Amino acid sequence: MVENVFVSLHPLAQHKLTLLRRAETEPKKFREVISELAMMLVYEATRDLATQPTLITTPLTTTQGVVMAEKVGLVPILRAGLGMVEGAWKLLPQAEVWHLGLYRDEHTLKPVSYYNKLPVAPTVELCLVLDPMLATGGSAIAAVDVLKRWGVTRIKFVGLLAAPEGIAALHDAHPDVAVHVAGVDERLTGPGDAFPSGFIWPGLGDAGDRQFGTA
Question: Cα Rg for the chain, rounded, in angstroms?
């Protein structure tokens, strides 16, 4: 296992990833499964959230409990990351959501920023960058760059699939950012493949197109 990369080997996570890989999975089902898998991965990514003690009253007596002591921000990278928000929100209904618009230039494979509505100063202690695919790593790196300039010090990447090239690029740029995914695939497609370059192989195709029915 690569340092700071966490792959969920839970049977349910692997089953849901298989459903997403299938070419015949229609957009409605694809969206549902992305939400479910995102919930599982966010659960794993938030194991180290700080808590603080609190005294509560049960139907029988009073006892000690805990409540979250940190605010969490969900940062979906538009547009594909939108499908992961609902699942994450089910676990973290109090989380703030900040959208970053980044797309990958098909020729250069470099990220292009087109939307950023972060407030002036950070309002959360932990940011979870949500993007189904960690392919070249360009969009993830650009998102983390933005968040660090914003002033956030704790950032994690949560996705469905990663390529070794994307993990290496993200860790070279930001070794402190943990990566939580359901699978790490073989490689990225290149000039010798019969498919466009920069896609995760064997992958699941374009997660944005498959969610929104625009493939």
Answer: 18
